[in-house]
Design brief:
Elements (H helix, E strand, L loop, with lengths): L1 H6 L1 E7 L2 E7 L12 E5 L3 E3 L2 E3 L3 E5 L2 E8 L9 H14 L9 E5 L4 E4 L26 H8 L3 H10 L1 E9 L6 E9 L2 H18 L18 H13 L9 E5 L2 H13 L1 H4 L4 E2 L3 H7 L7 E5 L23
Parallel strand pairs: 7-8, 12-14, 13-14
Antiparallel strand pairs: 1-2, 3-6, 4-5, 6-7, 8-9, 10-11
Helix pairs in contact: 5-6
Length: 323
């Protein structure tokens, strides 16, 4: 259903004996004001004889995309963990609600975290900035920061369109030894969201008319999700009209890094709308760079060495939109 949300739905109809179809956009991503946003408190859902009322649902064009579970800050047992457990109960008892879900939010009035449908409790993250310029004071209620920073209309639509990926991973059951393929839905954390948007803006400017051809640097700490940040960045640049279907070259200096990143990108082909390719040799890299547009190429920097016996490099392409 996420794909339908983003890509448009084909509605078939008959005309003059022929089968035709309309393309209908469920969400108007390019014009935020063209959508209807509704916040509903205590909306009743009845499924399989179970009657549940989630605290707050956010509807976009009549589709419940966000579930917010609030615990009363004054109750001593009312913790964020309890709110998380409540969402797990809803998933078991009223699963239809989650067919459309993009974000789950849990809060005890002060602490507040967001996660995807498949996220475990530790994967729920606070949203720590309202503007992407600076983090707010830690004394400000996290609920207010998340509502203004993450759930404002424009940011929410941007997150839904560009900052969610599905990753299939193999998980082995320790007891039975059986391997299962599990699909995880991953949502960008706040630092990834703001860093990627700034990087995209910088890249468009740098590659444009009069641009310096130099984008910038994002400084990451270990475990901050840099591989996924790169996927989100790639996905957003590929669809940026200014880039006119760019070619992306992902450069590392080690084979194991090349393989690891390639794996992350290959698992996210849905967001990238294409299959990434690994350059096997200098010749193969040259070949891959001869394309007129599009493509995601993985290579190590060593494959850019000049041919043996040659002192200079060949020009591989004169295009402006290779990143």
């Amino acid at each position: 259903s996420d794909l339908y949300l983003i890509e448009k739905v084909k509605v078939p109809y008959q005309k003059d004996g022929y089968e035709r179809s309309y393309e209908v956009a469920i969400v108007a991503f390019d014009n935020v004001a063209n959508n209807e946003f509704l916040t509903v408190n205590q909306y009743t859902i009845i499924e399989n004889g179970q009657n549940k009322r989630p605290d707050v649902l956010l509807f976009v064009n009549g589709i419940p995309l966000v579930v917010i579970e609030l615990k009363n800050a004054t109750g001593e047992h009312a913790t964020v963990r309890k709110a998380y457990e409540q969402i797990q109960t809803y998933k078991a008892t009223i699963p239809s609600l989650f067919t459309y879900n993009t974000v789950c939010v849990i809060s005890d009035g002060h602490e507040c975290k967001a996660g995807s449908l498949s996220a475990g409790f530790t994967r729920y993250m606070a949203w720590k900035s309202m503007d992407g310029v600076k983090d707010v004071s830690r004394f400000k209620p996290q609920l207010e920061v998340l509502l203004k920073g993450m759930l404002n209309q424009a940011t929410l639509l941007d997150l839904i369109r560009n900052f969610i990926v599905f990753e299939k991973t193999k998980k082995e059951d320790a007891k039975t030894g059986l391997t299962q393929i599990v699909t995880e839905k991953k949502l960008a954390a706040y630092h990834q969201y703001y860093a990627v948007n700034k990087a995209v803006e910088s890249s468009i400017k740098a590659s444009g008319a009069g641009g310096t051809k130099k984008g910038g640097v994002v400084w990451h700490t270990q475990g901050s999700g840099k591989s996924l940040s790169m996927v989100f960045y790639a996905g957003k640049l590929i669809t940026a009209p200014e880039m006119e279907n760019p070619t992306l070259v992902v450069l590392t200096d080690r084979n194991d890094l090349d393989d690891q990143l390639f794996g992350t990108f290959a698992a996210s082909r849905q967001l990238l709308r294409q299959e990434p390719v690994q350059a096997e040799s200098r010749e193969h890299l040259k070949e891959l760079l001869q394309v007129a547009s599009g493509g995601i190429i993985f290579t190590t920097i060593q494959k850019f060495l000049p041919e043996s016996g040659k002192a200079s490099f060949d020009q591989l392409s004169g295009r402006k939109n290779i990143l």
